[in-house]
Design goal:
The chain is of the alpha/beta class. The protein is 65% helix and 10% strand.
Amino acid sequence: MSRGKNDKTSGQGLSAFLRRMREKSAGESRAASEDIHYEGNALIRLLRYMKPHMKTFLLCLLLVLAATALDLYRPILIGNAIDRFITGDFLPGEAAAERFAGVLKAAGIYLVVLLLLFLCTRFQFLMMQKMGQDIIYSIRNDLFAHMESLTMRYFDVTPVGKIVTRLTNDVESINEVFSNILVRLFRNAVKIAGLAVIMLMLNTRMALFSFVLLPIVAVLTVIFRFISRRAFQIVRTRVTALNTYLSEHISGMKVIQVFGREKQKFEEFAEKNQDLYSAGFREMMVNALFRPGLYMISVIAMVIVLVQGSSAVLSGVITLGTLYVFLQYINSFFEPIQELAEQFAVLQSAIASAEKIFTLLDTRPLIQDDENPVILPEIKGRITFEHVWFAYKDEDWVLKDVSFVIEPGQRVAFVGATGAGKSSILNLIGRYYDIQKGRITIDGHDIKTMSREQIRSAVGQVQQDVFLFTGDISTNIRLSDESITDEQVEAAAREVNAAHFIEKLPGRYREPVTERGSTFSAGERQLLSFARTLAYDPAILILDEATASIDTETELLIQEALERLMRGRTTIMVAHRLSTIQHADRIIVMHHGRIRESGTHQELLAMDGIYKKLYQLQLN
């Protein structure tokens, strides 16, 4: 009976856990889809990236003008040949051979025009593609650099998939604007204007018949522009939501499989995929209705021109060559209008992506250095907390009136139950978050007045969850800092006893590391993190549950290395296993965000308080 009751309770607990996971997933998905509306003109801001490339862009516009002029000249060349050498009034004695020679001459000129058109188009295309790639390269660099400047709070509340979408899908969607759309918009606008002028010059009456349907085209274009912009915004938002979901659940695939939730998670994915499919379908339907509509209008216009033109040819008002030119022009006249509408659609998509990109770029870091930050000649490692109050959100205080002093070279450990505020203290020392009340100093200087770069270069932090990057062991120890030599990398590995497993690997320090270091054990990853920290030679060492994931044998290997690592450095430790911090100079006991006890291991045991209870619990 007891077993059945426990199973039921366990099942209810599992159900509650999974329900919370679903609620959390739904909440994060809503957060991913609810983007702040961008205030400003995203297109104008986007065009500012062209400023360094204006000479290239202007040259491309000149080539487009030349190509458009050549394109407009082609029908006139053929129309003149028809009137002059095929259907025209021939002079007495003018032989068929002479007329044929005239046709060949016109064909030769036509080929030259085509060659020049090809060259202008080719060079313009290559230059615009190069310019577009250069601009996209700059935008990506700006985005990543700005992302690195953002505080940890931003990454706490923003899904990874959303940020990845900004740097990949959204940036790529605006590539077409710079490499193609801008020039094509200019070309089509010039072509439409050129066609209209030439048609009016050839025959005003015929031209007016050709333009009779333009008001309908204008109305359709305005409606299409309005509807397509909203459709593209919805598509971009749902792409972000899907990428966010994928990023989170691919990372958590092991949890999904452990709890056997594949079917449920597939259903959630299918729902988001359906949302994106529906948005894409609506976008497709908008285009599917607009383009055929314009095509039908162009066909009707051509029929009108053909009927009126044929009557004019039979009446001798215009020549057959002129009718041919009009038919070619009316066909060409609606084609750029169709392209303009489609290009506006692509432009709307790019603007929707640009708004999301600029929203990220306009996100100001919560923590910024002073204009002239204090730069110390050397950081010795004296840390002071003076009546510090801190909350991640509003006034939900994690730390409450916390005060303590850590002298240079001193070893201080923080202990307490989960949620007591231990890890928050570590994050505040590196100024990953700013406090709401009180003051934190390093060597007597308020950290808000100091350079964050100097603070973080002086603080070496080893965490329980070690993150290894794709690459090799050497680059993971030096983190791509080429000022750290191979000899220093190897020396650091030997100091923390990581060399004993590295040098057994086929590639030694060049051994490939897969994503997150999945081919290494938890202990090996932790040893690499120790080597990484030692290679940077910090003045302040932070150990956040640094030995929690290490087996007893591996822990014995690094105890001696830890002693060498901590020697001469201010060391701050957080550990749940009290056996690892008994030799600390001072142990501070945290409880509900406050300091409740402080002293050495023996002094705290003598107090018969919170620390002694924690110690006895672990002994049992």
